[in-house]
């Protein structure tokens, strides 16, 4: 069987995983890097997509960085009750989903060699869908609702900077 070719996006193997792990650790989430070809536990989409089980985010060297950040941000935006028992599907509401997308773009700047411009390009290449046609246009022109939600939950400040805390966590 020949699998369709994956879009050219930045993958974990192309960067030092230590800063990725350190970023996730700030939120209480562990990065577990598996070997090539190993099935990823808790992966919603399967294949190389990151997976969530409890406080562990699973990835392989071929896992896209945008996928790692997306799943990590789902964990960050979960209520404490869902975060404690999350397995595979961390999404709850449309508001959480858009907040997750917005936060993953902001956190991309915390990973040396990634950054938000590459995150925009990778999200577009992977097929994220936004009303304005691109991740960058959505983020810059159409994401006030995501920012408002994240601010109301204490996950970003008024300037849009990450608070490095999880929803419902200590301030």
Sheet-strand content, in percent, reads 5-15%
What is the string of SSEs from the N terminus onward?
HEEEHHHHHH
Q: Terminal Cα separation, in Å? A: 51 Å
Mean pLDDT: 93
Concise description?
This protein has 171 residues and is mostly helical. The protein contains seven helices and three strands.
Please describe what this structure looks like:
The protein starts with 16 loop residues before the first helix and ends in a 19-residue tail after the last helix. It contains seven helices and three strands. By secondary structure, the chain is mainly α. The chain has one domain (12-152). Strands 1-3-2 form a three-stranded mixed β-sheet. The model has no long low-confidence stretch (mean pLDDT 93). The chain has helices spanning 17-25, 65-77, 80-85, 94-108, 115-126, 135-141, 144-152; strands at residues 30-33, 51-53, 56-59.
Task: Please give a handful of descriptors for the protein shown.
171 residues; 7 helices; mainly alpha
Show the helix and strand layout.
Blueprint: H1 17-25, E1 30-33, E2 51-53, E3 56-59, H2 65-77, H3 80-85, H4 94-108, H5 115-126, H6 135-141, H7 144-152
Parallel strand pairs: 1-3
Antiparallel strand pairs: 2-3
Helix pairs in contact: 2-4, 4-5, 4-7
């Amino acid at each position: 069987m020949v699998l369709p070719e994956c879009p050219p996006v930045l993958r974990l193997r192309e960067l030092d995983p230590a800063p990725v792990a350190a970023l996730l650790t700030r939120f209480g989430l562990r990065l577990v890097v598996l070997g090539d070809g190993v099935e990823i536990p808790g992966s919603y989409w399967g294949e190389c997509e990151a997976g969530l089980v409890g406080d562990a985010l699973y990835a392989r060297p071929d896992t896209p960085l945008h996928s790692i950040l997306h799943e990590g941000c789902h964990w960050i935006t979960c209520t404490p009750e869902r975060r404690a028992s999350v397995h595979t599907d961390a999404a709850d509401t449309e508001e959480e989903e858009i907040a997750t997308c917005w936060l993953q773009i902001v956190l991309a700047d915390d990973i040396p060699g990634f950054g938000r411009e590459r995150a925009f390009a990778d999200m577009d290449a992977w097929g994220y869908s936004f009303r304005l046609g691109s991740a960058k246009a959505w983020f810059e022109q159409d994401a006030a609702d995501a920012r408002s939600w994240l601010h109301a939950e204490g996950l970003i400040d008024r300037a849009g900077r990450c608070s490095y805390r999880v929803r419902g966590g200590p301030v």
